[in-house]
Amino acid sequence: MGYLQGEKPITISKLHAMHAEGEKITMLTAYDSTMSALLNRSGVETILIGDSLGNVIQGHSSTTPVTVKQVAYHTECVARANTHAFIIADLPFASYGNPVQALDSAAELMRAGADMVKLEGGDWQIDIIQYLVERSVPVCAHLGLLPQSVHILGGYKVQGKSKDAASLMLEQAIACEQAGAQMIVLEAIPSSLGKLITESLSIPTIGIGAGVNCSGQVLVLQDMLGISPGKPPKFVKNFMDGHASIEAAIKAYVREVKSGKFPGPEHGFAG
Ligand SMILES: Nc1nc(=O)c2c([nH]1)NC[C@@H]1CN(c3ccc(C(=O)N[C@@H](CCC(=O)O)C(=O)O)cc3)CN21
Ligand SMILES: CC(C)C(=O)C(=O)O
Ligand SMILES: [Mg+2]
To answer: How far is it, in rounded angstroms, from Cα 232 to Cα 191?
Structure first.
């Protein structure tokens, strides 16, 4: 199907214009073509093939076992049904340890149909971000809670809570933008810090547990459909509550992100 029919494809310029005009950007994860088609029909602008597929598809307890080949496979599945959404694929754990490896990994994801790749980390990834962007790979950075570092951090914990940690994260976000990152995901940080970083950058920020003042929002699809096992993180809202179909739930998510109803204060973290 590709771009042969349907709505005009969402581009990075369109996403930047939305950020500049204050129109909220919607993002959800997807890993297969059925859900890709559904997200396209529901008005979701950006689809993330997250390495969260390690959890929700493969049943692992972390994202670290996920490989580039696996993300590429799911990106192909999503891209086949994509009509116009902007596709971002996660560079998985240990697939961007040096610039050459990062370009190799990113190329595999771009060939699979990604429009942009996402990597975890801040100023310590500057060389990687620069190397990719100079070679025409669009990059989304990811700051705050970094799931690929779970075995270093000793668990999934809110980040940027102290004054020092917050100002360090702001510096890292600015460094990522200066290195050429065109978007940034902010995960599990105080809402006030999400707002500060968003106001300090000219590229869009996409929040997950980062407050309502980011340029857009993302959730893992299975989480917002209420079908992930276990107790969901605080930033998750079950959009199946009060909706009779998956399509209605996804459309409600789009409406609530656009209007600023989601996330509410109860889905965020205090400083
Ligand atoms: N299904 C799924 N959803 C996700 O959001 C997700 C994944 N998988 N896999 C990769 C990472 C892991 N993520 C997580 C996992 C747990 C928490 C969590 O338990 N957070 C606590 C905060 C703990 C604290 O207060 O420091 C919470 O209550 O939200 C957060 C993000 C986000 N990502
Ligand atoms: C939770 C989002 C931001 C992600 O990185 C993923 O799904 O892997
Ligand atoms: Mg991820």
So the answer is: 19
